[in-house]
Amino acid sequence: MTLDSKIPEGHISEKWTKYKDHLRLVAPNNRPKIDVIVVGTGLAGASAAASLGEMGYNVKAFCFQDSPRRAHSIAAQGGINAAKNYQNDGDSTYRLFYDTIKGGDYRAREANVHRLAEVSANIIDQCVAQGVPFARDYGGMLDNRSFGGTQVQRTFYAAGQTGQQLLLGAYSSLSRQIGLGRVQMYNRHEMLDIVKVGGKARGIIARNLITGEIERHSAHAVIIASGGYGNVYFLSTNAMGSNVTAAWKIHKKGAYFANPCYVQIHPTCIPVHGTNQSKLTLMSESLRNSGRIWVPKKIEDAVAIREGKLKPTDIKEEERDYFLERRYPAFGNLVPRDVASRAAKERCDAGFGIENNDTQEGVYLDFSSEIINKGRQTAYAQGNHHPSDEEVIKLGKAWIEEKYGNLFQMYEQITADNPYEVPMKIYPAVHYTMGGVWVDYNLQSTIPGCFVAGEANFSDHGANRLGASALMQGLADGYFVLPYTVSDYLAGEIRTGTIPTNTPEFDEAEAAVKAQIDGFLNNKGTKSVDHFHKKLGHIMWNKVGMGRNEQGLIEAIDEIAALKAEFYRDVFVPGSADEFNTELEKAIRVADFIDLGQLMARDALQRKESCGGHFREEYQDSEGETLRDDENFNFVGAWEYQGDDINHEVLHKEVLKYEYIKIAARNYK
């Protein structure tokens, strides 16, 4: 199959407007005749289901949580980007477009990124109309703050719980459509396969997670909005239920999987504190607006801190290495996530880490300077031009609490350290996956009628996502892209009629799902699912993590193959199929993670360059920065599944053409 991205002709600033003006429509009286399935009800899925329901389509929405409000989108903290230029600091649609392409290390599709920047402003208007309580400045206007990879303030936020507030807005829209009968909600259901009829997506096989019943659901189009695959590493900032199963099942049925090696490591995560830890906790990137990242300049001071002989407050200002400010003076602590993460790893690998764990992985995120600065500003604004040190600190802490209070509370509850008094300890951790199902400009996969939205697709972030752009993409896809492109596809389905489920295609898909479930339950193994998931995560983090090299990737492929054989031979899944069985759920998901992990390593092995979150140690300059190979690797790597053996995956290349942005080496110095 030839990859056709279906990018419209014309100037990039007019592509989307002219394109959508000429897409086919479905008349309002015909929409109730058409069924659409939406898998996942985070920001992308909930907004898509609500929008399509409001248009009049019959929508079936599925989530494995007990409510759409529990989707992982709720965990996003810092904000959502939009090119509104409220701060009058030079922002524009083009600037957001440029920052996103540059931040992604010139490995994203131009047309999709420009469309995202175009519709970003509409998202804020939509969410304000829904009642999302964005932060406001003293005059009542919406407030903005900065995020990594930019030199403007374009991030709208609601304290440190932006994702939760945005999801509640989308959920309110979704709930209205459920109440009107236009959306049928299936909570506690998990998609386990897609059904194709005549080459088109015509439905799914889902398991009722409460009763264990296997169900058939048909539709004229299927939208996958099931999030990313960061939990392939076991430890990540993702919710423990986040998984790749929906995306992987459609991959096995013909949807190409693009750039799986592009994984984002977030620089501000609470460090790992024990071998029995099941997930990691993120500290919002917004904290880098106010916090300064440092380690001791002297290695003996770092050793003393790790041994408990010194406290961070004992280290004088001149003895601190603010390494991001030193290396990247133009952006300082607000460099993109991949840059900040590698810089922290470099300091810790060199022996300057401050966390007392086996790997010494930890650096400081310090708010003392901001407390003093904001305290003085606040005092001056109140007419106190000569405040005491105590007054300054009190006012500064109050300012910090107003901006980030819930984040500081969360940190203290987890670590028992008060971040108002001592610096936070942070270290990079797996957070977001830029790779995903390949889609064209319409967000349609290589399976006709199967669309993919949000983090589940690959389309907008290249090799590294800018902070606060995930929420932007999810809502852009659901509210402002899919209603047009899905309708264009469905215009050809008006006369199709209801899709029956008593067909050989549904029979075959259901039989395959049941066979996999029976295989796990009848296996006479001795090890838990988590045992294998942790082993997979260990391989992935050490050999397909922040630093990768040819030998490690080859070893990872072989080690995961051996792990896969052991998994199917020795996994033990208790319980039965006709009950609420979380171990069975995990077994199915981990089986897909194992296959994906191999593909990630293979994709990383073939990409002999460093770009964004993909850092090959063989390809770096003298200062440890990424060395891209634009001559040989300026493409999207889309993999076609042709059998269970990883060697049967076939690589297809979509060459990336940059007409409106000049490709250059990223420079944040």
UniProtKB/TrEMBL annotation:
Membrane topology term: Peripheral membrane protein
Enzyme class: oxidoreductase
Main location: membrane
Family note: Belongs to the FAD-dependent oxidoreductase 2 family. FRD/SDH subfamily.
Compartments where found: Cell membrane
Short name of any one Pfam family annotated for the protein: FAD_binding_2
Sequence ranges assigned to domain Fumarate reductase/succinate dehydrogenase flavoprotein-like C-terminal in this UniProt record: 533-668
InterPro entries from the UniProt entry: FAD-dep_OxRdtase_2_FAD-bd (IPR003953), FAD/NAD-bd_sf (IPR036188), Fum_R/Succ_DH_flav-like_C_sf (IPR037099), Fum_Rdtase/Succ_DH_flav-like_C (IPR015939), SdhA/FrdA/AprA (IPR030664), Succ_DH/Fum_Rdt_flav_su (IPR011280), Succ_DH/fumarate_Rdtase_cat_sf (IPR027477)
E.C. number(s) listed in UniProt: 1.3.5.1
Domain of life of the source: Bacteria
Protein name in the entry: succinate dehydrogenase
Active site: 337
Cellular-component GO terms for this entry: plasma membrane
Protein keywords: Cell membrane, Electron transport, FAD, Flavoprotein, Membrane, Oxidoreductase, Transport
Single GO biological process annotation from the record: anaerobic respiration
